[in-house]
Amino acid sequence: MDRDQILAALRERILAFATLRVSRAQAEDLTQEVLVLLHEKYPKVAALTELVPLAFQILRFKMLDAHRKSLRRGEYNLESIDDFPIADSRDSPETELQRKQTVERLVQAMSQLGERCRELFKWKLEGKSFPEIQKRMGQTSINTIYTWDLRCRKQLLSLMGGSWE
User: Fold this and answer.
1) Which of 22, 98, 112, 154 lies 20 to 30 Å (CA to CA) from residue 122?
2) How confident is the model at residue 87 (pLDDT cuts 50, 70, 90)?
3) Which helix (H) or strand (E) holds 105?
Protein backbone atom coordinates (compact mmCIF):
# COMPACT_ATOMS: atom_id res chain seq x y z
CA MET A 1 0.00 0.00 0.00
CA ASP A 2 1.54 3.32 -1.01
CA ARG A 3 1.40 6.54 1.00
CA ASP A 4 -1.51 8.09 -0.97
CA GLN A 5 -3.72 5.05 -0.34
CA ILE A 6 -2.81 5.08 3.34
CA LEU A 7 -3.66 8.81 3.57
CA ALA A 8 -6.99 8.25 1.80
CA ALA A 9 -7.94 5.52 4.27
CA LEU A 10 -6.63 7.57 7.15
CA ARG A 11 -8.70 10.54 6.02
CA GLU A 12 -11.93 8.62 6.61
CA ARG A 13 -10.85 7.59 10.10
CA ILE A 14 -9.77 11.12 11.00
CA LEU A 15 -13.05 12.57 9.69
CA ALA A 16 -15.13 10.02 11.60
CA PHE A 17 -13.26 10.76 14.83
CA ALA A 18 -13.53 14.55 14.39
CA THR A 19 -17.24 14.40 13.45
CA LEU A 20 -18.02 12.78 16.80
CA ARG A 21 -16.64 15.82 18.60
CA VAL A 22 -17.37 18.83 16.36
CA SER A 23 -19.75 19.75 13.54
CA ARG A 24 -19.42 18.08 10.17
CA ALA A 25 -18.14 21.25 8.44
CA GLN A 26 -15.57 21.90 11.15
CA ALA A 27 -14.52 18.22 11.08
CA GLU A 28 -13.93 18.48 7.32
CA ASP A 29 -11.75 21.54 7.84
CA LEU A 30 -9.76 19.92 10.63
CA THR A 31 -9.24 16.76 8.58
CA GLN A 32 -7.98 18.80 5.67
CA GLU A 33 -5.58 20.71 7.91
CA VAL A 34 -4.22 17.46 9.37
CA LEU A 35 -3.65 15.97 5.93
CA VAL A 36 -1.93 19.11 4.66
CA LEU A 37 0.34 19.10 7.70
CA LEU A 38 1.18 15.43 7.23
CA HIS A 39 1.96 16.05 3.56
CA GLU A 40 4.11 19.16 4.11
CA LYS A 41 5.92 18.50 7.39
CA TYR A 42 6.07 14.72 7.57
CA PRO A 43 6.62 13.43 4.00
CA LYS A 44 9.10 10.79 5.19
CA VAL A 45 6.60 9.11 7.55
CA ALA A 46 5.05 6.36 5.45
CA ALA A 47 4.36 3.45 7.79
CA LEU A 48 0.76 3.05 8.88
CA THR A 49 1.85 2.31 12.46
CA GLU A 50 3.56 5.72 12.57
CA LEU A 51 1.05 7.75 10.52
CA VAL A 52 -2.07 6.87 12.53
CA PRO A 53 -0.82 8.00 15.96
CA LEU A 54 0.83 11.06 14.42
CA ALA A 55 -2.33 12.04 12.54
CA PHE A 56 -4.54 11.68 15.62
CA GLN A 57 -2.09 13.59 17.79
CA ILE A 58 -2.12 16.43 15.23
CA LEU A 59 -5.93 16.26 15.09
CA ARG A 60 -6.23 16.53 18.88
CA PHE A 61 -3.94 19.56 18.87
CA LYS A 62 -5.93 21.16 16.04
CA MET A 63 -9.21 20.51 17.87
CA LEU A 64 -7.85 22.02 21.08
CA ASP A 65 -6.60 25.01 19.14
CA ALA A 66 -9.99 25.50 17.47
CA HIS A 67 -11.72 25.21 20.85
CA ARG A 68 -9.39 27.78 22.47
CA LYS A 69 -9.86 30.12 19.54
CA SER A 70 -13.66 29.94 19.78
CA LEU A 71 -13.48 30.58 23.53
CA ARG A 72 -11.19 33.56 22.99
CA ARG A 73 -13.54 35.00 20.39
CA GLY A 74 -16.61 34.39 22.53
CA GLU A 75 -18.12 31.98 20.03
CA TYR A 76 -18.36 29.01 22.37
CA ASN A 77 -21.62 29.70 24.22
CA LEU A 78 -23.31 32.04 21.82
CA GLU A 79 -27.01 32.52 22.36
CA SER A 80 -29.40 33.31 19.58
CA ILE A 81 -30.35 36.95 19.40
CA ASP A 82 -33.91 35.85 18.71
CA ASP A 83 -34.15 34.55 22.30
CA PHE A 84 -33.82 38.04 23.78
CA PRO A 85 -36.67 40.54 23.90
CA ILE A 86 -36.25 43.80 22.02
CA ALA A 87 -35.38 46.64 24.37
CA ASP A 88 -37.77 49.55 24.47
CA SER A 89 -35.84 52.69 23.58
CA ARG A 90 -38.48 54.99 24.98
CA ASP A 91 -38.23 56.42 28.47
CA SER A 92 -40.49 55.12 31.19
CA PRO A 93 -43.83 56.91 31.61
CA GLU A 94 -42.58 58.29 34.91
CA THR A 95 -39.50 59.83 33.29
CA GLU A 96 -41.58 61.27 30.45
CA LEU A 97 -44.00 62.83 32.95
CA GLN A 98 -41.15 64.34 34.98
CA ARG A 99 -39.57 65.78 31.83
CA LYS A 100 -42.90 67.24 30.70
CA GLN A 101 -43.51 68.84 34.10
CA THR A 102 -39.99 70.30 34.15
CA VAL A 103 -40.47 71.80 30.69
CA GLU A 104 -43.81 73.31 31.77
CA ARG A 105 -42.18 74.84 34.84
CA LEU A 106 -39.32 76.15 32.71
CA VAL A 107 -41.69 77.77 30.19
CA GLN A 108 -43.72 79.36 33.00
CA ALA A 109 -40.54 80.67 34.70
CA MET A 110 -39.15 82.00 31.38
CA SER A 111 -42.35 83.98 30.81
CA GLN A 112 -41.82 85.73 34.16
CA LEU A 113 -38.27 86.83 33.26
CA GLY A 114 -37.49 90.27 31.96
CA GLU A 115 -36.95 91.00 28.26
CA ARG A 116 -33.16 91.19 28.59
CA CYS A 117 -32.93 87.71 30.21
CA ARG A 118 -35.27 86.15 27.64
CA GLU A 119 -33.19 87.61 24.78
CA LEU A 120 -29.96 86.44 26.41
CA PHE A 121 -31.29 82.87 26.81
CA LYS A 122 -32.68 82.88 23.27
CA TRP A 123 -29.31 83.81 21.79
CA LYS A 124 -27.50 81.27 23.95
CA LEU A 125 -29.89 78.56 22.77
CA GLU A 126 -29.25 79.63 19.18
CA GLY A 127 -25.56 78.91 19.82
CA LYS A 128 -24.32 82.48 19.89
CA SER A 129 -21.08 83.11 21.78
CA PHE A 130 -20.76 85.71 24.50
CA PRO A 131 -18.85 88.14 22.23
CA GLU A 132 -21.66 87.85 19.64
CA ILE A 133 -24.28 88.47 22.33
CA GLN A 134 -22.23 91.46 23.53
CA LYS A 135 -22.42 93.03 20.05
CA ARG A 136 -26.15 92.30 19.71
CA MET A 137 -26.87 93.89 23.08
CA GLY A 138 -24.66 96.87 22.33
CA GLN A 139 -22.44 96.52 25.39
CA THR A 140 -18.82 97.65 25.52
CA SER A 141 -17.71 95.15 28.18
CA ILE A 142 -18.11 91.41 27.89
CA ASN A 143 -18.04 91.18 31.68
CA THR A 144 -21.43 92.89 31.70
CA ILE A 145 -22.82 90.04 29.59
CA TYR A 146 -21.29 87.47 31.95
CA THR A 147 -22.85 89.25 34.94
CA TRP A 148 -26.27 89.45 33.26
CA ASP A 149 -26.04 85.77 32.37
CA LEU A 150 -25.27 84.83 35.97
CA ARG A 151 -28.09 86.99 37.34
CA CYS A 152 -30.57 85.67 34.75
CA ARG A 153 -29.71 82.04 35.56
CA LYS A 154 -30.10 82.71 39.29
CA GLN A 155 -33.44 84.41 38.70
CA LEU A 156 -34.64 81.53 36.49
CA LEU A 157 -33.57 78.99 39.11
CA SER A 158 -35.44 80.81 41.86
CA LEU A 159 -38.58 81.07 39.66
CA MET A 160 -38.40 77.30 39.13
CA GLY A 161 -38.45 76.66 42.86
CA GLY A 162 -34.73 76.55 43.61
CA SER A 163 -33.84 73.42 41.64
CA TRP A 164 -33.78 72.26 38.05
CA GLU A 165 -35.47 68.95 38.96
Assistant:
1) 98
2) confident
3) helix 93-112
> How far is the C-alpha of 143 from the C-alpha of 158, rounded, in Å?
23
- List C-alpha distances in Å: 62 to 6, 19, 47, 52, 59: 21, 13, 22, 15, 5
- Is residue 59 within 8 A of residue 18, CB to CB? The reply is yes
CB 15 within 8 A of CB 31: yes
For the chain, which residues make up each domain, given as ranges?
3-76, 95-159
Report in angstroms the alpha-carbon separations of 92 from 102, 104, 164: 15, 19, 20
pLDDT band at 78 (very low <50, low <70, confident <90, very high): low
CATH of 95-159, one of 1.10.10, 1.20.120, 1.10.287, 3.10.450: 1.10.10
CB 14 within 8 A of CB 56: yes
